[in-house]
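Fill-in record for Exodeoxyribonuclease 7 large subunit.
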Amino acid sequence: MKPVSVSVLTDAIRHTLNQKFGRVFVAAEISGITRPQSGHIYLTLKDEFAQISGVVWRTTAEQLKFDLEDGQKVVCGGYVDLYPQRGTYQLIIQQVQPVGIGELELAFRQLHAKLKNEGLFSPEHKKTLPRYPRRVALVTSPTGAAIRDFLQVLHRRWKNIEVTVLPVKVQGPGSANQIAAAIRSISRMAESPDVVVVTRGGGSKEDLWSFNEESVCRAVFDCPVPVISAVGHEVDVALSDLVADVRALTPSEAAERLVPDQAEFLKQLDNVRTRMTRALRDRLESATTELEQIAARPVFSRPMVLVERNAQLVDELQRRMNLAMKRQTEIASSEVGSLAGRLDSINPLAVLSRGYSLTSKVDGESRTLVGDSGMLTEGDEIETRLAQGTVTSKVVKTNR
């Protein structure tokens, strides 16, 4: 037999595999997932007895609704192929269906858990709606029933509000990217709206899936103004509803949550006006009565009475002050006379008038009072002070 090359043999085996098996579906457990920068996904499909390599090309991986994880039980659809460089066969996976749960449900649960762990659903991140918004940005399909229902209820409840419609696809390929881009464009608008409403009418889970995409949820979370999400009917819950600041069950309810009923508001305003008028009237009557009572007081009805009364009091106080001053002066004068008599009685000069004298020794300009003859010697100059005048003499002789 003529030998063949490895390449020829490999191609023959590959051709045989393709013809023999065609498209196959394999139930298995995923393990050994790797994701290189190319975007392809490499994995192993196994059961308790065997395993086969598998590859998900990037174009297929980008269309998967959920993330592939080790340990997942799946049904993979594709075809068997041979990898010539290694001489191993592998399953080229074109479709993946989780076992026991739908593809969309699994994707919903995975993204829900991821966003919840990151805090995108937390109440502390929720922004409060303005009480009376003036401008609203509406992200929806311009041809759907949602825009009609929303605008009809909105303008019935509140007339003076400006609505800017940001038209987008709300289902199908590319719709999620359009919705996310429209929400992110809010920060670049010349006049920023007070509120953003993201809405669409009801539909199947597949129809509403764009509002479960991660790009839409993160755009809602990052929006600088409050966001109302109203997707589908009452029973429908999208992830964008959970991320939004306010969730409305329907587009009509979104309009009701956004603005008050103008007729009811005007009625409340009229009630407030009535209460304010009544309160002001009561206050005016009370103030008038109080003013009349004040005006009736003597200080206002006969203002000079208080002046005259105080003038009389001043006169009385002045009279009493003069008497007190006179009495104090007399007492002081008496005390001064008594003190003067006592001073005269001990004044040495007063003794001189009775024939006594004071003798001082003269030493230049100084004078020393002499109380003992021993203080003097012959020839000392002395000065004698009499009741009237002084006598200067010299000592001739001293006796003790």
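KEY FINDING: Residues 287 and 334 are 65 Å apart (CA to CA).
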